[in-house]
Amino acid sequence: MHTDIITISQLCFQYHNEETGLDIPVLQGIDLTVKKGEFLAVLGHNGSGKSTLAKHLNAILTPTSGKVLVEGIDTADEKRLYDIRQRVGMVFQNPDNQMVANIVEEDVAFAPENLGVPRDEIRKRVDAALESVGMTKFKQHAPHMLSGGQKQRIAIAGVLAMQPDILVLDEPTAMLDPSGRKEIMQAIKRLNREQGMTVVLITHYMDEAVQADRVVVIDHGTIRMEGTPQAVFPKVKELKGLGLDTPQATELIYLLNQKGANLNPEILDSETCVAELLRNIEINR
Amino acid sequence: MLKDITLGQYFPGNTVVHRLDPRAKILLVLAYIVFVFSIKNFVGYALLAAFTLACIFISQVPIRFVLKGLKPIVVFIVITGLFNLFLTDGEPIFTWWIFTVTKEGVGFAAFMILRLFFLILGTSLLTLTTSPIALTDGLEQLLSPFKKIGLPAHELAMMMTIALRFIPTLMEETDKIIKAQSARGADFESGNILRRAKAMVPILIPLFISAFRRADELATAMECRCYRGGENRTRLRELKLGKVDLGGVLAFLLLGIAVFGLNFWLGPSVGVR
Ligand SMILES: Nc1ncnc2c1ncn2[C@@H]1O[C@H](COP(=O)(O)OP(=O)(O)OP(=O)(O)O)[C@@H](O)[C@H]1O
Ligand SMILES: [Mg+2]
Fold first, then answer.
1. b/e map of A85-100 (b: 16 or more CB within 10 Å)?
2. Between 20 and 30 A from A285 (CA), which of A123, A178, A238, A251?
3. What is the span of the domain harbouring residue A41?
4. Which ipTM value was assigned to this complex?
5. Does a structural domain hold residue B239?
6. Domains in chain A: how many in total?
7. For A30-46, how does the pLDDT look when each residue is reduced to its tens digit (9 = 90+)?
8. Which residue in B3, B133, B162 is closest to A141 by CB distance?
């Protein structure tokens, strides 16, 4: 939990607009470190630059200025491109648009095949990857016959087969129904807890961000807030100003406190919220 | 299992025919096509029919499945047959109005029909018993010697794989768009061909836009998974020639000897060129 696995310093990035000839700044001086084994959530409203940041973590994009180091490797170093991509597995929003083959295990094998891994080893990796997302049963299926959550788990298995050290997920649950979302969050958390996978989760859902070790809030390409969920979410007013919601329980406590109640603001889920309210009722009785 | 419903024609199984190496199977089907077009008498076709039936029987694919492959080209076969029947010169059998049927015509028409029939039968047995992915793998390997003269074997196979993968996704999407447009009052059923073609535009435009977006996202996802073309790529599946393939080759060798032997001993039937 103590060594830095990704170090981002003074990262700036701009898109060049061909029509107007202007450069549009998207990331403006991001400083961020990700620690080995941590579960980091990245929040920010639409267009704040989250996906752009994610694409810098595995050298799909490289900085206009500043530096991104992944396990000490500079992402701008083209000779190490595939070393970086292999270390940082990336999962996107739409599972349909990430799958290459029409049989699950063939799809999961895609990355190790690209890396030139020997056949026996591919087999092992595919089986292990499918096992760790609980999809072993489906290895002979066609992806289009699976549910959204199952497809997204295959997409995760597809990057796990590279044996990455870091998993970056860009709104992986945005297209899923509630049960699919739960499946994915469980899979991510299990990888983080049991296999010590470093996770960077970009999300719009506060209830997902709450489960992270640390939260970073991005706005207009800069980091505006950072800290544990307990530290970040009680700042309801500040978050609203950045166009974000807060977990419902936190907001309820916040509103009650505004009306003069004296409740612990660091409450993130409904269970602890209920417990806190009951405790308060007991005291006032 | 419903896997590989993609083309609606792979019939999964674990028979000898299924287990033939896809490369061997493709080559054997090519040999089969050569036989189909070399046979010069009806005894030869009887033999070929027996051989084909045996293959279908061994593969355990229901006959009606195999025959389904013939459906789209029945019209084509019939027209070819009729043309040959009426337009072949030779010894007249009977004449009606401007049509003359000759002995040679009957023979030749029968031959053309048989050739097309067996051509389709043989190739559909290939696609029925080989999963699309094995087929693309086999093609890639068979074509790889031609890489030296600039044939992009890996890229072709990759394109086929991705096309197969996205056919169901795009079909689903087309369906959704049609429903969405119908809900807004679009009419795809009435009117003449021109009108109906015009009605397709509001389906095709969103479909194309979405297909391009998908392609873009897929390309990024492939890059993220370290895709860099066919060089130094390994494969999960190993294509390995085995005893089954040797058996297949032997069977075809015997068939070939028989076919050419019959051609030689019996000579061509009437009308055959
Ligand atoms: N290819 C591109 N060319 C030009 N501008 C782009 C491109 N991709 C993104 N942008 C711009 O960069 C900004 C940040 O985009 P980005 O996709 O990183 O946002 P995001 O935080 O991921 O948003 P969302 O929550 O919608 O996914 C946006 O203003 C967007 O318009
Ligand atoms: Mg995004």
1. bbbbbbbbbbbbbbbb
2. A251
3. 4-246
4. 0.90
5. yes
6. 1
7. 999 999 999 999 999 99
8. B3
